[in-house]
C-alpha cells in the first residue's frame, strides 16, 4: 500500500534533502555530534515528517499547520547551514548548492500550504 504523501514531489525532495544533510554532516568535527550535526539532522527529518503527517490530516486547517511546521524546519536547516559555513564546517560552494534545493523545496511547500487555504471572498 502506498500512502498519498509518497506521491508528493515536495516530500520526495525533502527525502533527498535529508540524505544530503546526513552526507554533509558526516564530515563535521566529531565534537559537533551533539551540536550542529544533531540539530541539522533532526530539523531535516522534521521537514519530511511533517509533510507526511500533514497529508494524513482530515481538516485543511490541520494540514496547513503541519505544512507551516515543515516550512519552519526548512528555514531552521538553512540557518544552521549558514552557521556551519560561518564556522568553516562547510564551504560556500556547498552552501550555495544545497540552498538551491532548499529554495525549491520551500517554494513547493509554500504551494502545498496555499492549497489548504480557503479561497478569499471577492
Give a written overview of the molecule:
By secondary structure, this protein is mainly α. It has one domain (8-114): de novo design (two linked rop proteins) (Up-down Bundle), CATH 1.20.1440.60. Helices cover 71% and strands 0% of the residues. The relative contact order is 0.17.
Let me know the largest β-sheet.
none
CATH topology descriptor? de novo design (two linked rop proteins)
Rg for CA atoms: 15 Å
End-to-end separation in angstroms reads: 42 Å
β-sheet strand percentage = under 5%
Structural class: mainly alpha
Kindly state the percentage of residues in helix: over 70%
CATH H-level superfamily? 23S rRNA-intervening sequence
The appropriate CATH architecture is Up-down Bundle
Shape descriptor reads elongated
Give me the count of strands.
0
What is the domain total for the residues? 1
Name the helix and strand elements from N-terminus to C-terminus, one letter apiece. HHHH
Number of helical elements = 4
CATH class: Mainly Alpha
Average pLDDT metric:
93
List low-confidence stretches. none
Summarize the structure.
The chain is an all-alpha fold and 122 residues long. It contains 4 helices and no strands. The chain has a single domain, classed as Up-down Bundle (de novo design (two linked rop proteins)), CATH 1.20.1440.
